């Protein structure tokens, strides 16, 4: 099928054609980065899951590779579901969930899920070796293994749905990648937080341990109108052979509309990065009419700040994509809208507002605004409610709704905004907060404007870059 270009990202990972969901198997091995992903190559809708594959030497320029895993063996007959990759003494090894429908297809059907392993000699072609872990008694939903090595021992977390329809994460330890033992429940829901915890990831950050997961089964109302039901994390302390002691309840990682199933990995120089799927299951997908669906967020670096808060910032490698820069001297706006002569098709913006001095009732930026202003995505400060708002009510095909967060403390508001052909990602105050959403306005004549309503607002710095593509020139 021919893919249409209009919404296809320039600097985000997306499938060549067909469907993409979760990022899988993120790893650095033999001098290159690997990103695998949940993929249905024959259709732009979810179906029997394959593992798509892309590689990069610098986390900036990417190349599509042959499909790495194809379902169809007895243990993964109906899907090679999400999982991870490890570098086992130079052997790139994939650990993933083999999925089989026993009865019916869909959320109510009976299923069999087991953890499986595959290895590669060249990092491109994989040989399956079958099942390494079967579910404990009474557990049917059992998927998305994430494996790491610590003090010479292997560990694995797996997402599960317990007998009472609550989410939990199980911990295993292994003497080899083929020999595993159940250690117990690492964490479980103590209140309603979805019926299944998908895509768990568990890793040290600063002096803490972070358990990241994606709660499944929150109602669409929940995620659409409140801010708490996407992928998130629990912070605590842990060491092998000890329980995970929780220090902070579930927090959402990203406060936009479209962010799910993130997975982390460690860079060649030891930074903890993640990619997320830049969609939700309930998201609108107008690109299905174009022969493809789904893409990943930018790679983001995680850190723990001095106050113990988790921060998420775009990977510094992305600066290599910046092309022509356009800078404005400091200025103020009073009951005014200022349209800039720059495009919002594939761009990065870095700007700061003086919050202390700005008294306007509302002020902010119009992203991807059309000439007739029928289409506009707004990111603004609402001074009275002290909220930061991402307004997607006029963002084009299918999508809508607002997302908002409390205006952070401080005199300055620092924004880094990445706009691609069908997405916007806003990083607030060095990654204290992040809002990610898909948008589908017309790609012709997309502009940018700054505005202040009922009062004055002060813009201290403003730089805009055209962003280059991450894909090889055709
Ligand atoms: N997607 C995969 C599952 C995972 C879910 C199937 C999360 O392994 O639990 O495509 O989006």
List the helices and strands and how they pair.
Blueprint: E1 18-29, E2 32-40, E3 50-56, E4 63-69, E5 79-88, E6 91-103, E7 110-120, E8 126-133, E9 142-150, E10 153-161, E11 167-176, E12 179-188, E13 196-205, E14 208-216, H1 220-225, E15 232-237, E16 245-252, E17 260-266, E18 272-277, E19 292-293, E20 300-304, E21 310-314, E22 322-328, E23 331-340, E24 347-354, E25 362-369, E26 376-382, E27 387-394, E28 402-406, E29 412-420, E30 423-428, E31 433-438, E32 447-467
Parallel strand pairs: 1-19
Antiparallel strand pairs: 1-2, 2-3, 3-4, 5-6, 6-7, 7-8, 9-10, 10-11, 11-12, 13-14, 14-15, 15-16, 17-18, 18-20, 20-21, 22-32, 23-32, 24-29, 24-32, 25-26, 25-32, 26-27, 27-28, 29-30, 30-31
CATH topology group of the largest domain: Tachylectin-2, Chain A
Number of strands: 32
Kindly report the name of the CATH homologous superfamily of the largest domain. Answer: Glycosyl hydrolase domain, family 43
Assembly level? single chain
Q: List all distinct small molecules, including ions and cofactors, that are bound in this structure.
A: 2,5-dideoxy-2,5-imino-D-mannitol
Helix content: under 10%
State the end-to-end distance: 18 Å
Per CATH, the architecture of the largest domain is: 5 Propeller
CATH class of the largest domain: Mainly Beta
Radius of gyration, Cα only, in angstroms? 22 Å
Share of residues in strands: over 45%
What structural class should be given to the helix and strand makeup? mainly beta
What general form does the structure show?
globular
């Amino acid at each position: 099928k021919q893919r249409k270009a209009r919404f296809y990202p320039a600097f985000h990972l997306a499938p060549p054609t067909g469907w993409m969901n979760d990022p899988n198997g993120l790893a650095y091995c033999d001098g290159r980065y690997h990103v695998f992903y949940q993929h249905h190559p024959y259709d732009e809708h979810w179906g029997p899951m394959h593992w798509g594959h892309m590689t990069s030497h610098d986390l900036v320029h990417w190349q599509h590779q042959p499909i790495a895993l194809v379902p169809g063996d007895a243990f993964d007959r109906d899907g090679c579901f999400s999982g991870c990759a490890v570098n086992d003494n130079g052997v790139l090894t994939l650990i993933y969930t083999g999925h089989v429908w026993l009865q019916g297809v869909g959320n109510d059907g009976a299923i069999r899920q087991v953890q499986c392993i595959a290895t590669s000699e060249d990092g491109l072609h994989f040989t399956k070796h079958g099942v390494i872990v079967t579910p404990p008694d009474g557990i049917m939903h059992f998927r998305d293994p994430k494996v790491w090595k610590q003090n010479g021992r292997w560990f694995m977390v797996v997402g599960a749905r317990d007998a009472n329809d609550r989410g939990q994460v199980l911990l295993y330890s292994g003497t080899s990648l083929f020999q595993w033992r159940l250690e117990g429940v690492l964490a479980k829901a103590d209140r309603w937080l979805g019926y299944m915890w998908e895509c768990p990831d568990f890793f040290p950050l600063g002096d803490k341990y972070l358990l990241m997961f994606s709660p499944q089964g929150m109602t669409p109302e929940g995620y659409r109108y409140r801010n708490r039901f996407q992928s998130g994390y629990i912070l605590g302390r842990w060491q092998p052979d000890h329980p995970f002691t929780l220090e902070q309840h579930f927090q959402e990682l990203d406060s936009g509309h479209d962010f799910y199933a993130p997975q982390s990995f460690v860079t060649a120089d030891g930074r903890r990065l993640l990619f997320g799927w830049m969609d939700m299951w309930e998201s609108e997908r107008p690109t299905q009419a174009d022969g493809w669906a789904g893409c990943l967020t930018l790679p983001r670096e995680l850190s723990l700040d001095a106050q113990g808060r988790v921060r998420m910032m775009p990977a510094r490698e992305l600066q290599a994509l910046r092309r022509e820069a356009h800078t404005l001297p400091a200025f103020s706006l009073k009951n005014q809208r200022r349209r800039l002569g720059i495009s919002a098709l594939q761009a990065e913006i870095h700007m700061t507002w003086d919050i202390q001095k700005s008294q306007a009732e509302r002020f902010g930026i119009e992203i991807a605004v059309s000439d007739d202003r029928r289409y506009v995505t707004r990111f603004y400060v609402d001074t009275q409610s002290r909220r930061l708002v991402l307004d997607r009510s006029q963002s084009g095909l299918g999508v809508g709704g607002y997302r908002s967060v409390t205006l952070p403390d401080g005199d300055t508001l620092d924004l880094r905004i990445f706009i691609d052909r069908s997405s916007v990602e806003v990083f607030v105050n060095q990654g204290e907060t992040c809002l990610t959403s898909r948008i589908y306005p017309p790609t012709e004549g997309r502009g940018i404007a700054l505005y202040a309503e009922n009062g004055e607002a002060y813009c201290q710095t403003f730089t805009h870059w055209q962003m280059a593509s991450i894909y090889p020139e055709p």
